[in-house]
TrEMBL record:
It is found in: Cytoplasm. SMART domains: GATase_5. One of its GO terms (cellular component) is cytoplasm. SUPFAM superfamilies: Class I glutamine amidotransferase-like. HAMAP family: PurQ (MF_00421). Its EC number is 6.3.5.3, 3.5.1.2. PROSITE patterns: GATASE_TYPE_1 (PS51273). It catalyses: L-glutamine + H2O = L-glutamate + NH4(+); N(2)-formyl-N(1)-(5-phospho-beta-D-ribosyl)glycinamide + L-glutamine + ATP + H2O = 2-formamido-N(1)-(5-O-phospho-beta-D-ribosyl)acetamidine + L-glutamate + ADP + phosphate + H(+). The keyword Thylakoid does not apply. Part of the FGAM synthase complex composed of 1 PurL, 1 PurQ and 2 PurS subunits. One of its GO terms (molecular function) is glutaminase activity. The lineage of its organism: Bacteria, Bacillati, Bacillota, Bacilli, Lactobacillales. This is Phosphoribosylformylglycinamidine synthase subunit PurQ.
Length: 225
């Protein structure tokens, strides 16, 4: 079982997610540069948070054209797990792997906080280790996290149970219906603004991210048995 952490110029949560998966969860993990064109040998792809290409144009809009992205798209189309946090979520939306868009935060300010989140679905490859109806605490740190989609897309997200995380307290960025994280229709691509990789140790304030990565590992064990 091997994880790939894709690194873009300006990624700044790549080491956090590498540490979360490699050191805390004890899984095999590599950094894979945006220059690469193949993901052969990997079972999970992680797109980290950060400020890829300085957030120019729109967050994620340039990274989406990186050399590695055709391989990420092919990996996703094959039904394998792809996870993007924060800037990773922005890149997945720009690449068309998830529906909708992220606009600048409603208050036009960068938000940096730890906030409560509802885990809305637990029968997914990313959340199966959480109890049903759980509320967890995860950090956020972003300027463009205001999720938006049209009414038809919103109806589909609800119908297909693609809304996985919602903000449980005050909406920190103006997101439609408090949406914090969604999957694609097939359920193997998940993007979210909060950072589970920064909630892995009591010393840092929360361990609520551990079950997120445990869920992916549970899923892989099940499908590879
Ligand atoms: N932590 C991050 O990934 C930041 C995301 C993005 N650059 C923003 O400010 O919205």
């Amino acid at each position: 079982m091997k994880f790939a952490v894709i690194t873009f110029p300006g990624s700044n949560c790549d080491h956090d997610i590498y540490y979360a998966v490699g050191t805390v969860m004890g899984a095999d993990v590599d950094f894979v540069s945006h220059h690469e064109t193949s993901l052969a040998g990997y079972d999970v792809v992680l797109l980290p948070g950060g400020f890829s290409y300085g957030d120019y144009l729109r967050c994620g809009a340039i990274a989406r054209f990186s050399n590695i992205m055709p391989a990420v798209i092919e990996f996703a189309k094959a039904g394998k797990p792809v996870f993007g946090t924060c800037n990773g979520f922005q890149i997945l939306l720009e690449a068309g792997l998830l529906p909708g868009a992220l606009k600048p935060n409603a208050q036009l300010k960068f938000v940096c906080d730890t906030i409560p989140l509802n885990v809305c679905q637990t029968e997914t490859m990313f959340t199966n280790a959480y109890e049903k109806d759980t509320c967890i605490q995860l950090p956020i740190a972003h300027g463009e996290g205001n999720y938006y989609c049209d009414e038809e897309t919103l109806a589909q997200l609800k119908e297909n149970k693609q809304i996985i995380f919602t903000y449980a307290g005050e909406n920190p960025n103006g997101s439609l219906e408090n949406i914090a994280g969604i999957t694609n229709e097939a359920g193997n691509v998940l993007g979210m603004m909060p950072h589970p990789e920064r909630a892995m140790e009591e010393l840092l304030g929360s361990t609520d991210g551990v079950k997120f990565f445990q869920s992916i590992i549970n899923h892989l064990r099940k499908v590879t048995v």
